[in-house]
Write a structure and sequence with these properties.
The chain is mainly α. It has a domain of 98 residues. Helices cover 37% and strands 8% of the residues.
């Protein structure tokens, strides 16, 4: 184990020099760190330097959200076209596996799995909160730092709860939640608290984060990699929508939009970037070179943040990360677009993307969704999401006209001039129209969270039962010679709580308990 970070020791001296280069820590929740090269943090400026390092915070490598929904188009025929393209873990997440997933090493570029990566962010937040009142600096600096850290902690606990825990309902209040860490010391228990206690912690942190007075735009620059009033209101809107509290979700989405409402106009602000030429069916009579068109945001990849930080709809800079470099859209997702007029389909759905993933001989054509490079897309709250939350809340509460006016503010920026606006007759149809636009705008990144809430609200019309036809598999391989079968994830399934990594359970000496199924 290499902790590569140091926390506060006796005498209020904080040693965190290697936090910016955080590496793997399998025992992240319960093993004491070791000392190394470090900087003693004495001022609020030092703590700000920690939070300004967005490398620590911006990635959300949640494979459950990425592969677990009907946006994911991994099919038996696509897999069979070139099995070597796909890691077994991709199959396991796509089929909502239980026995094998805990053993899969799902490390991201920093060596941390999603569970550990979010707790690393929580640890950074705890360091700031533990020390903000005990280092030199102004009262305003202290307040801003604490609000920032509370947002980081709330966001990570919310991500973890919606991945590893059952949806929060009255019936599930006493189901297992998360280990709650609020101090940078290693004295707190790592036992899982109840789901109710977990959400109480999220709401407590959100309440504190909402106290921030730091604006999003400072000196003409949208400073979205740090907590700000628009970001906190945006996360609050997402949180309360997830809780089916449409009044509060509408209030906070409205507050975020009052502060910042810039939308990207795909007619004027989007363009193609550098194309890619790929040879297919080489050595056969059908050999040819195919040109793939990408949005300009594809041209720069990690660690170049130019396009990601420059995306002007961000309220809070977080991106979904896909290490496999292929967001595979399902046919169900593709069918939702007006493919002749919707510019999101033009720029983000790269035809023949499968060729770039090696399906060239024999050629197998399938598209890919590309937003930023091939591995990331917006996951944090954006202006577009706030417009959609506002529209949904209006529709859910009976304001059909207001909902349609709002959703078309976004739709008109994403479609060719003259495209007919979205319409609906009645509340049920308005809700459906808004939810379809939400799915077109935010595929992959929010669909998992949406399905969880749809299946646990008071509207049976939006429930989603998931199913996928695929081959049988074992812990080591997919059996292509066997007939395919149907795998399902029905509403109410306990598999909506993904298994925790076995390494973290083992390293806690059994204190952290696995989900039961």
């Amino acid at each position: 184990m290499n902790t590569n970070f140091l926390v506060k020791s006796a005498g209020w001296a904080l040693l965190v020099g290697a936090l910016a280069g955080l590496t793997a820590c399998d025992k992240y929740l319960d093993v004491k760190p070791t000392k190394g090269t470090s900087v003693i943090i004495k001022t609020t400026s030092d703590l700000n330097a920690l939070l300004n390092n967005y490398n620590i915070f911006y990635l959300e490598s949640d494979n459950v959200a990425l592969y677990g929904t009907d946006d994911n188009g991994l099919s038996a025929s696509l897999y069979a076209a070139r099995p070597n393209t796909f890691a077994l873990s991709t199959v396991l997440f796509s089929l909502w596996d239980v026995p094998n997933l805990p053993l899969v090493d799902q490390s991201n570029f920093s060596g941390l799995n999603f569970w550990s990566n979010e707790y690393a962010k929580i640890q950074s937040a705890n360091i700031v909160l533990y020390n903000a009142d005990n280092v030199d600096g102004t009262a305003d600096d202290r307040a801003a730092l604490k609000a920032d850290a509370h947002l980081i902690r709330a966001y990570s606990y919310w991500q973890l709860a919606n991945t590893y825990c059952l949806p929060y309902t009255d019936a599930n209040r006493n189901e297992p939640g998360l280990p709650i860490k609020t101090l940078p010391t290693f004295d707190e228990s790592v036992a899982r608290q109840s789901l109710a206690a977990t959400y109480q912690q999220i709401e407590a942190d959100l309440t504190e984060a909402l106290k921030t007075t730091v604006p999003l735009v400072q000196g003409g620059v949208a400073r979205h990699w740090r907590a700000n009033t628009a970001a906190v209101n945006g996360f609050a809107a997402r949180y309360y929508l997830n809780r089916n509290d449409y009044s509060n979700a509408l209030k906070y989405a409205g507050a975020a939009l009052v502060e910042y409402s810039t939308l990207v106009n795909y007619n004027t602000d989007m363009r193609y970037g550098t194309p890619a030429s790929i040879s297919i069916n080489t050595g056969t009579p059908t050999a040819q070179t195919v040109v793939l068109k990408f949005p300009y945001t594809h041209d720069r990849q990690y660690p170049d943040f130019t396009d990601q930080l420059g995306w002007k709809e961000f309220l809070y800079f977080r991106v979904l990360n896909n290490a496999a470099l292929w967001y595979i859209p399902s046919q169900d997702l593709l069918s939702l677009y007006d493919q002749a007029n919707d510019l999101r389909y033009k720029y983000h759905y790269v035809q023949n993307f499968s060729y770039k993933r090696g399906m060239t001989t024999p050629a197998y054509s399938y598209p890919g969704y590309v937003f930023f490079y091939e591995d990331t897309m917006p996951e944090g709250p954006t202006v577009a999401e706030m417009v959609l939350i506002k529209a949904e809340c209006l529709a859910r509460t009976g304001d059909v006209s207001g909902a349609l006016t709002t959703v078309n503010q976004l739709y008109s920026k994403r479609t060719l001039p003259g495209t007919a606006p979205l319409t609906a007759t009645g509340q049920a149809q308005a809700i459906r129209v808004v939810l379809q636009e939400r799915r077109r705008e935010m595929p992959f990144s929010q669909r998992w969270f949406d399905i969880r809430r749809f299946n646990n609200n008071n509207d049976p019309n939006d429930d989603v039962a998931l199913a996928r036809t695929f081959y049988p598999y074992t812990s080591t391989a997919v059996t292509l010679t066997a007939p395919t079968q149907v795998y399902t994830l029905p509403a109410g399934s306990r598999r909506f709580a993904s298994p925790l990594p076995q390494s973290d359970i083992s390293n806690s000496n059994g204190v952290i308990l696995q989900n039961s199924y």
